[in-house]
Amino acid sequence: MMNTFPGSTQKELISREGSLSGKYSRLFSGRRDPAGIVWYELVNLLFARLPGAVGFGLRKLVYPTLFGRVGRGAIFGRNVTFRHPHKIRIGEGAVIDDDVVLDAKGEANAGLDIGANVYVGRSAILSCKEGSIEIGDFCNISSRCTILSETRVRLGKYCFLAGDCYLVAGGTHSIDRTDVPIMFQPSLDRGGIDIGEDVWLGAGVVVLDGVTIGRGSVVGAGSVVSHSLPEYSVVTGSRVKKIWDRRQGPPSG
């Protein structure tokens, strides 16, 4: 069964009136107090791009003042983008590599939880769009992976995502009306994504909303996972469904 919900903050920002400063705050810092906004800006300006050991050391010292929680030994690379950092919680020994996006934005969502000893590779994107993301301890998220959540994404402990994986919870829109742009039609909620412990996703795997992958499973490179998998499955491949004319509606049967 699918539910509908209004959709992400980005859609609201481009469709509503309001001041530029208010929109900026809702999209980036998530703070409404002037002091909090100024500190967010200063941290980004002064520390985000510092190279070498000095940069690592200063970010380790300063970033916990912005984040909801940062465990001991966590380190941050250069040019890390963080949005609504007060809703980002990072465990002990986690490594956030260069150019990562950590985005917990939303009005009422839980945000982003990254467990202990998690590695988030270069240029990976973890983005909440009113949803939540939970990464279990000892997960490895390789370079250029993207995890998007309008509802909920959970990865159990010891999961390994090879490069360029794409996980999206939500993001599917109603297309019933042709007089309203698709992006402004309600998003469909199929229940989020739940990945059990010790799961390996090969390079370029796509996992769609509503999927549960049981513990110990292996998904081959380039696969599109549109249905749930039981524990210890080994799968590969993808398939394409029949296309229809939206003006005529989906085919029967």
Task: Pick out its properties.
seven-stranded parallel β-sheet; 25 strands; globular; 27% strand; 253 residues; eight-stranded parallel β-sheet; 4 helices; alpha/beta; UDP N-Acetylglucosamine Acyltransferase, domain 1
Write the layout of secondary structure elements.
Blueprint: E1 3-5, H1 9-15, H2 20-29, H3 34-47, H4 52-62, E2 69-70, E3 75-76, E4 81-83, E5 88-90, E6 95-96, E7 101-103, E8 111-114, E9 119-120, E10 125-128, E11 132-135, E12 140-141, E13 146-149, E14 152-155, E15 160-161, E16 166-169, E17 172-173, E18 187-189, E19 193-195, E20 200-201, E21 206-207, E22 212-213, E23 218-219, E24 224-225, E25 234-235
Parallel strand pairs: 2-5, 3-6, 4-7, 5-8, 6-9, 7-10, 8-11, 9-12, 10-13, 11-14, 12-15, 13-16, 14-19, 15-20, 16-21, 19-22, 20-23, 21-24, 23-25
Antiparallel strand pairs: 1-18, 17-18
Would you give an account of this structure?
This protein has about 250 residues and is of the alpha/beta class. The protein has one domain: 3 Solenoid (UDP N-Acetylglucosamine Acyltransferase, domain 1). Helix content is about 15%, strand content about 25%. The protein contains 4 helices and 25 strands. The protein has helices spanning about 10-15, 20-30, 35-45, 50-60, and strands at about 5, 70, 75, 80-85, 90, 95, 100-105, 110-115, 120, 125-130, 130-135, 140, 145-150, 150-155, 160, 165-170, 170-175, 185-190, 195, 200, 205, 210-215, 220, 225, 235. Strands 3-6-9-12-15-20-23-25 form an 8-stranded parallel beta sheet. The longest helix has 14 residues, at about 35-45. The chain is globular and about 60 Å long. The two termini are about 15 Å apart. About 35% of the residues are buried. The mean pLDDT is about 85.
